[in-house]
Amino acid sequence: MSAFTLLLLTPREVVFEGEVTSLVLPTADGAIGFLPGRERTTLEVIPGDVKFRTEEGEVTVETGGGIAEMTGKTLTILCGAAYRKEEAEKKKTERASELEEERRRQEQSLAEYKINRAALIRAFDKLRRTSSK
To answer: Among 27, 89, 98, 101, which is 20 to 30 Å from 76 by CA?
Structure first.
């Protein structure tokens, strides 16, 4: 089976490096397909799903914006962020949990602030009454 090399890179890591038989890439002009033997090309990648087929099966990677360049038998994709689909869903769930926890902490802080403010007002009132005697 004919294949080409895919390098999927972010500033922090190599997300995928290996042989693929086909790939579909999201671009501003729509989805663009890559097969072995494609001519040299450079494209802007928009945020979305990059889908490619390896010997093990189909892989989906959620990416941020970036650039893709096909040279010879190598397709290099450079993007700001990229996660395998399962990992992306996990990160979204973690982020939602973090935001919910932060919201709860803010509500608790507001409640504590109101309780402490009321206690301070009572203390000042009591101090005012005892000092005026």
So the answer is: 89
Tell me the pLDDT tens digit for each residue of 43-84.
Answer: 999 999 999 999 999 999 999 889 999 998 999 999 988 888
User: Quick check: 35 and 56 in contact, CB under 8 A?
Assistant: no
Cα gap 65→10, rounded to integer Å: 10
d(CA 10, CA 80): 5
Domains of the chain: 4-85 (2.60.15.10)
Report the distance separating Cα 79 and Cα 64, nearest Å: 6
SS (H, E, C) 47-107: CEEEEEEECCEEEEEEECCEEEEEECCEEEEEECCEEEHHHHHHHHHHHHHHHHHHHHHHH
Query: Could you write out the DSSP letters of every residue in 24-37?
Result: EEEETTEEEEE-TT
